[in-house]
Design goal:
This protein is of the alpha+beta class and 130 residues long. The chain is built from three helices and six strands; from the N terminus they run βββαββααβ. The longest helix has 15 residues.
């Protein structure tokens, strides 16, 4: 049983995006990733629809093992995906959902012009009491 919980922010080993989750700091096994990309203004609404499709499918999975959030920056064309997975097995399952793979294909075909970045985060600390 976890006694002290903190927010983990860490990168994946294979470059995929993940969200925040509470964890035991002595067991920093969560995988956390941020993916950022910019789409053409004409593709924004279609991208949002494609995102909603895979999010709907994700809701049919065990959401206690992962979290996946998407944001846009002020320009409304730059998307930020922030996700957390309990482990690599969960990450692999999520990233292989057919609607997610279709979203990636359509996004990439829309013309990202080299704006796609994947960042791995390393846990530093938390505002939570230990």
């Amino acid at each position: 049983m976890l006694r002290n919980h903190q927010l983990l922010i860490a990168w994946t080993r294979n470059g995929y995006l993940c969200n925040t989750q509470f964890f035991d700091p002595s067991k920093q096994t969560m995988i956390n990733v941020i993916v950022t990309y910019t789409v053409k203004p004409a593709f924004v609404e279609e991208n949002k629809k494609n995102i909603q499709k895979f999010l709907d499918d994700f809701k049919n999975l065990d959401t206690s093992t992962f979290e996946y959030n998407i944001y846009t920056k002020d320009d409304n064309t730059t998307f930020v995906h922030y996700s957390t997975y309990r482990n690599e097995e969960v990450q692999t399952e999520i990233l292989n959902v057919p609607s997610f793979k279709e979203f990636q294909r359509l996004r990439d075909e829309s013309g990202l012009n080299g704006t796609h970045t994947v960042e791995i985060l390393t846990y530093v600390g938390s505002s939570k009491n230990e």
